[in-house]
Amino acid sequence: MKKSSSKNIGIVGAGIGGLAVAIRLALKGHRVTVFEAGDDVGGKLSELRAQGFRFDKGPSLFTMPGLVDDLFRKAKKNPRNYFQYRRLDPVTKYFFADQTEFSVPADPVEFAKNGSQFFNVPEAEIKRVLQTASKQFLQTKEPFLEKPIKSIFSIFTLENLPLFFKLRRFKIFQTLHERNQNSFSSPKLVQIFDRLATYSGSSPFESSGILQQTAHLEYNIGAFLPEGGMYSISKALKQLALDLGVEFNFNSKVSKISVHQGKVRSLKVGFLEQPYQIIICNADNHTAYDTILQNASSHIVDDRKEEPKSSAPLVFYWGMKGNFPQLDVHNILFSADYEKEFAEIFDSSVAPSDPTIYINITSKVVHSDAPEGHENWFVMINVPPREKKDNWFEKREKLRKLIMKKIQDRLGINVLDHLVFEDFLDPYTLEKSNGAYRGSIYGNRSIGAWSMFKRQPNESPITGLYFVGGTVHPGGGIPLVLSSAKITANLILGKNS
Ligand SMILES: Cc1cc2nc3c(=O)[nH]c(=O)nc-3n(C[C@H](O)[C@H](O)[C@H](O)COP(=O)(O)OP(=O)(O)OC[C@H]3O[C@@H](n4cnc5c(N)ncnc54)[C@H](O)[C@@H]3O)c2cc1C
Questions:
Q1: Is residue 420 part of a domain?
Q2: Ligand 1: which of 19, 24, 34, 44 to mutate, judged by most atoms within 8 Å of the beta carbon?
């Protein structure tokens, strides 16, 4: 790129979306400055260290690591000089309400073989779903996940015509639960594949059957864990950005994005107004509209902002004395009635009375994550986004007891006998620390066939203003956030549209 075409670009937020878009634009010779409210990079993908324990605060399931590697390769760097990861086997251990348990092996052929015996279904049933997931993911990836979508009409192109003839095969008009019920003769397999909806903070009873194809990521490509934990992804991206000349300003909360005559003009941090030709907002989209973009709202009034939000987290970070061989890295203690659990979260907006509990223990493979003879338990349930009237102190205490009781009943472990360290994340603290609107993790949740078109597009009607991250198109979770960075960078570089 010639020097004269190099632009001054300001980015609000150093989540992985902000980092990835900064890298892509710095690589093309632009001058990129990132303003982050917190004291380091990562946003939801950050870590907690205390008393010899290390916990990843947010994400724990790492799929499609190649998307992270791509950023390094684009910069002609060896990703292995920045971070290492390994493939997990088994992927996840599922504990069902009837006290049975099944570990999904990393090899999809073995999954079908072992699953056939355990769930008493033909091997072909599991194989068919995994093969279809792979095929359909590859068919839809480019138009839906790698291209900008401004509105429903932007997808109706000549190029996409063949896809529309296949729409029925993608089962977009069924719910994920209906599709899973039609695919599997075992209710336990239905529950495992229904859980895919939670990766976008959604309910399998409302989201589209097309989500079944996301099984491809976890069960065909695999689940991975970086050496040094998930946070090493944020650290590696920060180092790459620094190597490319990106400038970071921490403890620098942007209070306003100024717009003049339909064009972005500057960012306000403290008393300073900093002029930029292009501004990219990586902050939670709904919160940004309500705060830093308030003055620009007449240009971007968009009812997509009001769409129902995804689930919020309640996480306990427990330092546990002892070793617990009955648990693996990823463990799911399913609820007895999944439909009731989601109805409570999304229809009644209350915490589930019998929550599905996720326990992630990275110290099983990253031994430095806990002191000798200890484990680092990340224990999470899905809860509704925060309501104004909520008292999260009381709720948290009640749910903590409920979770501990279920762990005692299902696993025979009395948590209090082993607990040596404790911290937590709830919808209130996530909102406060990250700006996540009402503590919702992924922004708008996935409801029905057209939810893809109800997310904030990556560009805006304001010249020079763009969006990136898990609350905008194409969605939340590490792979989609990295995809959103690619779409946004390409829009700015004039490579998309
Ligand atoms: C508990 C939990 C579990 C999860 N599990 C998984 C998982 O297993 N796998 C997976 O792939 N994903 C998971 N996710 C989702 C994943 O973490 C997110 O989708 C992804 O990290 C979001 O990245 P982002 O770039 O959108 O921004 P964020 O991480 O939300 O970062 C936004 C940044 O903007 C900053 N900011 C906000 N407002 C301002 C302002 N005004 N000025 C300056 N800076 C500002 C914030 O401080 C923050 O650093 C999980 C998330 C959580 C919370």
A1: no
A2: 44
